[in-house]
């Protein structure tokens, strides 16, 4: 019975962690973005970088995101790029690397973010099946051999004159026969892909990525790469109409990625391709009809990228091609939750362009977003009517041959064969909005903890990247101080200080002049942690305090916190209870050594705020989003006393091969368990200072349970790379 109780207890603890958003997610909340897939199959002329650059103003009027075709050099001049060879060379069939960077900068200037199409499931050799090119980025050479190929790859069965037997681990996903299956369990492979994403973001200027063929490797690796890359948006191509399988992949990424809503795509096919059967457009969510697909679920709809067709499904030889009423299908996805994606082949078609733009305008007028609530008003074979609520009003969409009269307080925005859309806005829309306000921000870097001879600052704001890696050279003001002024910052400024090789972590959400230095610690990628300092003498600013206004009338307030390494600072979920200090305000004061923290406020019973990440100074919040608000009064920090219980230290975290455990109590045994609660390793009679080999573990989140000689258990966690 004791063993059974122990297992149940672990599963409960792990379930709580699984429900807790711990990693920074490339999934925007309540996203109003609309995406354009900027290419079709073999669209080398319509989608080359020069053509798209000339179209950037028109694209920017309608789309917030554009998904570009693979841009890496695959040693051909007429290839879509889905059999990659080079990672750090972005000369492709669509144009040169210089033209690509010009395109992305022009898109950013017109309000559109660029999404890269990256193919990391498989790779081709440079001259034969297995000779991957040697590439260098930021002073690091990336070289792969046969150990980078999964052991079951079909190359092993070929009759070749050179050594071609793969020595990697078994494939963690589906096999791909046209190129070598990449072994994502290999640390060298992982480091190369992390560097590749860093290159795409910081050198080329991409804002996010679409992962090709994610069925080919386990979803936890997507989480690893996204946590390293910290992009604006991630979307995976999990090509399957099975809702449970697609949402299972999202879960496997630790909710760090969206996914294309193939279940919704196939629902559209079923509803339109063989005459109307519009009941296919709705699925039950509980007892109520909702738009079909991932978007029918309140939780998963924010993770959905909806679409009608793409470069694969839209080909004339593809059985998944949509052959029905194209504009009615776009009326459906542009009036539903999720982030809608319009295919270039449809948007460029003169029969559709104007009407698609009108549907986009209607969505924007109502302020629909990825988590909008929908009421399905009618659902039958010949009619679908739904009302979607946005940030600026609501929208009614009618699809089908049956008649429908919208309420008189709604205005018809657009209509066509068997579809119509009406809107009711809370405020009159401004036809010509004023330019987004910008600000001037100066950042300074106190270079007292590095040996950097020069300091660069790479930066981006809410409109996109402000420079290419490694950024602008900062002015040396003497006495280890370096400065740079950004004159036109849109929204928040985000920076990385670097010397071209070494760098800090991302420093985000800067909204005023600020000064920074580094600590001597690094994250799992070797990037230096930062700390905000006094702009006069470089001394550390006051300890961090955070305050929360209990506008939700929660009976209890808890604070759950973690640092950049994933280490918990206020205990396991739901964290530490905090007390009221002033008229509905609750405060927590961190130790002076804490200089960068992430926070979730919650009531300990299922209700919580969103992640508040990257806090480096005293801040105050309210609501569940939550909103950054003015503090009610001077909030001071008091250093906390040490916990008198067992102090457990686990490092490094994340870990690749060996993990060190330091315990303040004599240890009886140590157990390591997976996220599912399965014990993977058990060590008895270990020392208080113990080094454990975890190199055999698959990448992911693990829990470590230390039992001291009194029987008391202390639970920590670590990430295996």
UniProtKB/TrEMBL annotation:
**The UniProt record lists the keyword Transferase:** no
- UniProt entry tagged with the keyword Membrane: no
Q: Which UniProt keywords apply?
A: Carbohydrate metabolism, Glycosidase, Hydrolase, Signal
* GO molecular-function terms, A-Z: alpha-amylase activity; calcium ion binding
List each copy of the Glycosyl hydrolase family 13 catalytic domain by range.
33-363
Q: Which Pfam families match?
A: Alpha-amyl_C2, Alpha-amylase, CBM26, Por_Secre_tail
Q: What is this protein's name?
A: Alpha-amylase
Please give the organism.
Marinilabilia salmonicolor
